[in-house]
Amino acid sequence: xxxxxxxxxxxxxxxxxxxxxxxxxxxxxxxxxxxxxxxxxxxxxxxxxxxxxxxxxxxxxxxxxxxxxxxxxxxxxxxxxxxxxxxxxx
Length: 90
What we know:
The chain crosses the membrane at residues 18-37, 65-89. The chain has 90 residues and is mainly α. The chain is built from three helices and no strands. The chain has a domain at 33-89: F1F0 ATP synthase subunit C (F1FO ATP Synthase, Up-down Bundle), CATH 1.20.20. 83% of the residues lie in helices and 0% in strands. The two termini are 13 Å apart. The model has no long low-confidence stretch (mean pLDDT 82).
């Protein structure tokens, strides 16, 4: 575990500051991508609730399609998180 923590310390990256900075920026961009996915999921849920409000009889169909769509979108967020971890700790 200490090797993972030591790889991320800034004082050990003195020889290659540019590469370290670019890696941190890329990890931040990946985390920003995950944040965008979360905002899109919130918008999707809001639209699904609005659709259920307009047509309550279709609630089960709307809910099942929404859950499948959110699961697919969530994979993008997980990939962004994994890329950020790989950039930070590699």
